[in-house]
């Protein structure tokens, strides 16, 4: 990992320059300009827009004309941008599907997407070529209603993360099976015991940040995404499943989630302790910041059997300390569910 010039490593939720030998007494490097992923220190390729993982949020009002200029800065791959969930009525050629609705934008070329934002809801954009999306080429696309609301919006993009999976490699491993050393990858199983033909993942990310856990379950202390909330305020989390292959169960310690919309459609509000989001899906939930001022874990956990991966973030009440949350998840039982 590096910012423009300095190589950095993670420690206790912060980043430090490589020449720092005792991070406990050193000044950390601000994480804002560092793509940390899960804090894995070996260099890896990411494919991102405007130097950010995820790329920029696009937030518009219903009915607005959206104009997005895309310049392909990659050296050897074409690209397109798909606007996930938008029906593109009247503008099917703006759907961003390579070789179907447009020719890919070649290296060095530019292309302008132009379409109407319809209808209100939580969507996202992502590359539709190879595994560029898996490597970070995605971002939020929010269409807001033209009505006054006192609820503040927060965007949460959750996805799985690999250290070494690129499009050609994926095809080869799919065909010939993947090996670590001389040991073939085990068949993945979901909770209902069905087999999953998917590549192993290394971590989960929320808004581009997560932590790598070693085989003993110890994390590497990489910085996480922090959602700042004010006591007594209501927030609408717009959760986007930007995963490649894995689904996540999402919960917030100490708080009830009121699910109000999915995939751009309003729902009768439902109070839940957690919900499952699959790749591509969106769920909007509201949360009241009505708990003691402090820090609470926002948890994403994969549905893999035996070996779950985590995507953690922090719900931070303004004026709380900056220490890591010490909260735990509320366990629901057969007789105590929903808001339990
Ligand atoms: Cu999509």
TrEMBL record:
Keywords: Copper, Metal-binding, Oxidoreductase. SUPFAM superfamilies: Cupredoxins. The keyword Metal-binding applies. GO terms for biological process: iron ion transport. Residues 44-147, 156-319 form the Plastocyanin-like domain. It holds the Pfam family Cu-oxidase_3. GO terms for molecular function: copper ion binding; oxidoreductase activity. GO terms for cellular component: plasma membrane. InterPro entries: Cu-oxidase-like_N, Cu-oxidase_2nd, Cu-oxidase_fam, Cu_oxidase_CS, Cupredoxin. Belongs to the multicopper oxidase family. This is Laccase. It comes from Dreissena polymorpha.
């Amino acid at each position: 990992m590096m910012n423009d010039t300095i190589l950095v490593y993670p420690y206790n939720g912060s980043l430090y320059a490589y020449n720092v030998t005792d991070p406990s007494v050193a000044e950390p490097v601000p994480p804002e300009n560092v793509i940390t992923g899960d804090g894995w220190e070996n260099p890896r390729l990411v494919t991102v827009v405007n130097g950010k993982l995820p790329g920029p949020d696009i937030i518009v009002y219903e009915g607005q004309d959206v104009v997005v200029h895309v310049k392909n800065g990659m050296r050897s791959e074409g690209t397109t941008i798909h606007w996930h969930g938008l029906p593109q009525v009247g503008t099917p050629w703006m759907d961003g599907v390579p070789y179907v609705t447009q020719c890919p934008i070649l290296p060095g070329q530019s292309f302008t997407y132009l379409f109407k934002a319809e209808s209100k809801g939580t969507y996202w954009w992502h590359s539709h070529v190879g595994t560029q999306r898996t490597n970070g080429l995605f971002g939020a696309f929010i269409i807001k209603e033209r009505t006054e609301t006192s609820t503040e919006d927060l965007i949460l993009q959750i996805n799985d993360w690999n250290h070494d999976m690129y499009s050609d490699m994926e095809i080869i491993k799919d065909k010939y099976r993947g090996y670590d050393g001389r040991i073939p990858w085990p068949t993945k199983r979901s909770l209902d015991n069905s087999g999953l033909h998917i590549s192993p993942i290394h971590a989960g990310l929320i808004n581009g940040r997560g932590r790598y856990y070693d085989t003993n379950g110890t994390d590497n202390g990489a910085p996480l995404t922090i959602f700042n909330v004010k006591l007594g305020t209501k927030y609408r989390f717009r959760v986007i499943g930007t995963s490649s292959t894995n689904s996540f169960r999402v919960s917030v310690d100490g708080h009830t989630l009121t699910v109000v919309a999915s995939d751009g459609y309003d729902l009768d509000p439902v109070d839940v302790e957690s919900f499952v989001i699959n790749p591509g899906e969106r769920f909007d939930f509201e949360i009241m910041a009505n708990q003691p001022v402090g820090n609470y874990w926002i948890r994403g956990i994969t549905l893999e059997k035996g070996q779950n991966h985590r995507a953690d973030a922090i719900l931070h009440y303004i004026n709380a300390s900056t220490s890591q949350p010490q909260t735990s998840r509320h366990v629901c039982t057969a007789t105590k569910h929903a808001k339990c």
